[in-house]
Specification:
The complex is a heterodimer of chains A (369) and B (279). Chain A folds into 2 domains: 231 residues, Rossmann fold, CATH 3.40.50.300; 128 residues, Nucleic acid-binding proteins (OB fold (Dihydrolipoamide Acetyltransferase, E2P)), CATH 2.40.50.140. Chain A has 369 residues and is α+β, with helices and mostly antiparallel strands. Chain A contains 9 helices and 21 strands. In chain A, the strands form 4 sheets. Chain A has a 6-stranded mixed beta sheet with strand order 6-7-8-3-9-10, sandwiched between helices. In chain A, strands 13-12-11-14-20-21 form a 6-stranded antiparallel beta sheet. In chain A, α2 runs parallel beside α4. Chain B has 2 domains: 32 residues; 221 residues, MetI-like fold, CATH 1.10.3720. Classes of the chains: A alpha+beta (369), B mainly alpha (279). Chains A and B meet through β6 and α2 of A and α8 and α9 of B.
């Protein structure tokens, strides 16, 4: 078991290509932390630096209390599961799992016990004599996990381990991994570009963009209180709607002017920081589920009602996504399947102003959550 | 339509059959001549042996007893095994290194190796034999180093092509599992490269076993003779052309290569294709 401390770490490739800039992160013991971000954001590079597969250009990396910047991967007491599983094709499943223990000169009896134990947990006992080419994607993924498990590592590093699986298997493996983490009680560092995986699996999530850590928080907090426009847009599916609006003081409170409509910010959300944006443009963020087309709701929230045209309607089974044109903006609303709104209708929808987010239009930083 | 296709195939089969016979015929001519008497080989080289011309294993005995064929087989075997082993081991390690180490010098080394394949042997043979003499490489052990140099081009090219196709993650997994680079090579990379080892091994074996010019130029002929060199001497170096012994020696020289090729032709085709695509 071990914590990981990432202290002002940067990664610069030859040609002065900066991939990670001044990254700071505290991963506590037994935590399941997920690094998430778009392709090329540097999440895998951070994982590989923790593994020792990439040199650290500057900064310090601690596993537990030990500075490991110059410690080779084999001495870091970590195990890694790769996206491609990276099983040894010439070895059987048993030999794949036993390999690290054989290298460490572990007695044969103990190797056997540990391999069979891990195989039992992962339900791959019947596959031990097969070679990787005779396994399905899901089975290979389990073997890769088993290979990591037998070592009893202090830290598990997982680099997009589910991305090669089909959607159904991915969903079931997600649950399996969460169970496995609880069972092993080890620190897990998990890299993914899939925000659903991040939200469902992580104790905390690290959102990265262009080599910079955008926010580190619990899934719920990331969803409810994003630090900036990037996090707000990246976390959540369908993604948050953004509309440019003008903030104006009105009596004791504030209103947002958009397309001739005035939307009042609830009194309990008003804060001093809004004063400096009086009369300025801001970015309004509202999640699709906070736009409602129910007639009763719209009647009760007429001060946040707007008119929009339904351009596309997608029935998802338990909900309907309405793609609305509101002036120059496109909005997505997640409404009940009982909705009466049809393509081409000019409808009234109300925004739940208690769930409103405001962002600085230039920096993208949050003003109000 | 169906008949047309079948007919086409039939014609192709007949044509290919004829070509195969043309290619195989020298081997058969050598084989049946090796059982004929000296005069009959010279006078009627294409005639099958009859009761009158049949001499049994006399030509083989002559080759072995009079020309030291067995010692020739021994030296050829030593040179071939030594050279092929050196080429396989050193070139595969070298190819792995220059493929994985992303530096300018590794690219230069690769280009040099590949370039060596296009330099004709005749261009370097004089300087080579002089250098080999000066460096005392004119022994069966020394010539192994010369063969390593000549074999490296093709071997490095083929091994590099294969290594590029091995996912880097497998080697990284081995590093995390506790392997040093040397151990990663021997425990992980080498077993994965097995098909290419077989292909390169067979191609190099056939070339070195059959080679005449290089040992002729490099080896000290008073002490060491390979099969090809001996056959050349039988051809006239002793004043007499002993055709019977030549035929018997040729048969003995060809048999190991033919067996090797037939038993492993699958790997040759696979390996050459893999190198071509991935390289």
């Amino acid at each position: 078991m071990a914590s990981i401390t990432i202290n002002h770490i940067s990664k610069i490739y030859p040609g002065n290509i900066s991939v990670i800039e001044d990254c700071n992160l505290e991963i506590t013991d037994k935590e399941f932390i997920v690094l998430v971000g778009p392709s090329g954001c540097g999440k895998s590079t951070i994982l590989r630096m923790i593994a020792g597969l990439e040199d650290i250009s500057s900064g310090e990396l601690y596993i537990g209390d030990r500075l490991v910047n110059d410690v080779p991967p084999k001495d870091r007491n970590i195990a890694m599961v790769f996206q491609s599983y990276a099983l040894y094709p010439h070895k059987t499943v048993y030999k794949n799992m036993a390999f690290s223990l054989e290298i460490a000169k572990t007695p044969k009896e103990e190797i056997d016990v540990r391999v069979r134990e891990a195989a039992k947990v992962l339900d791959i006992e019947h596959l031990l004599n097969r070679k990787p080419k005779a396994l399905s994607g899901g089975q290979r993924q389990r073997v890769a996990l088993g290979r990591a498990m037998v070592r009893n590592p202090a830290v598990f590093l997982l680099d997009e381990p589910l991305s090669n699986l089909d959607a159904k298997l991915r969903a079931s493996m997600r649950t399996e991994l969460i169970k496995l983490h609880k069972q092993l009680g080890t620190t897990f560092v998990y890299v993914t570009h899939d925000q659903t995986e991040a939200m469902t699996m992580g104790d905390r999530i690290v959102v990265l963009n262009a080599g910079l850590v955008q926010q580190v928080d619990t899934p719920q907090k990331l969803y409810d209180c994003p630090n900036n426009v990037f996090v707000a847009g990246f976390i959540g599916s369908p993604q948050m709607n953004f509309i440019d609006a003008t903030l104006k003081k009105d009596g004791g409170g504030y209103v947002l002017g958009i397309n001739g409509d005035s939307l009042r910010i609830p009194a309990d959300k008003v804060m001093d920081a809004l004063a400096q944006y009086d009369g300025r443009s801001v970015k309004l963020g509202i999640r699709p589920e906070n736009i409602n087309d129910d007639a009763d709701y719209v009647a009760a929230h007429s001060d946040s009602a707007i008119s929009a045209v339904v351009e596309v309607s997608e029935l998802m089974g338990s909900e309907v996504y309405l793609y609305l044109r509101y002036g120059d903006n496109m909005l997505t609303a997640r409404v009940a399947p009982t909705t009466k709104s049809k393509i081409g209708d000019n409808i009234k929808v109300s925004l739940d102003m208690n769930k409103l987010h405001l962002f600085d239009i230039e920096s993208g930083d949050v003003i109000l959550n | 339509m169906k008949i047309g296709k079948k007919t086409g195939r039939g014609i192709a089969s007949i044509l290919l059959g004829i070509f195969s016979l043309i290619y195989v015929s020298p081997l058969f001519i050598i084989l049946f001549n090796s059982f004929k008497s000296q005069t009959n080989i010279s006078n009627e080289p294409f005639k099958l042996p009859s009761a009158a011309t049949w001499v049994g294993a006399a030509n083989y005995r002559a080759g072995i007893n009079d020309y030291g064929l067995l010692s020739g087989v021994g030296w050829t075997l030593l040179i071939t095994i030594g050279s092929v082993a050196a080429i396989l081991l050193l070139c595969s390690m070298f190819a792995w290194f220059i493929t994985r180490v992303n530096a300018i010098y590794s690219k230069i080394l690769y280009v040099l190796c590949v370039f060596s394949m296009v330099v004709p042997f005749q261009m370097v043979m004089y300087t080579l034999s002089q250098t080999a003499d000066a460096l005392r490489l004119n022994t069966p052990w020394g010539i192994i180093i010369v063969y390593l140099g000549f074999g490296a081009g093709l071997a490095v090219f083929m091994f590099s092509g294969f290594v590029k196709g091995i996912p880097l993650e497998i080697e990284e997994a081995a590093m995390i599992d506790g392997c040093t680079p040397v151990r990663t090579f021997f425990k992980v990379v080498l077993p994965i490269m097995q098909p290419t080892y077989i292909t390169v091994g067979i191609l190099q074996t056939m070339w070195i076993w059959n080679d005449f010019l290089l040992p002729y130029l490099v080896l000290d002929r008073n002490k060491y003779n390979t099969i090809s060199m001996l056959i050349q001497y039988m051809r006239g170096s002793f004043g007499v052309v002993h055709m019977g012994a030549i035929m018997a020696s040729l048969v003995l020289a060809v048999i190991p290569v033919v067996i090797l090729y037939l038993s492993a032709q699958k790997y040759i085709i696979e390996g050459v294709a893999a190198g071509a695509v991935k390289g």
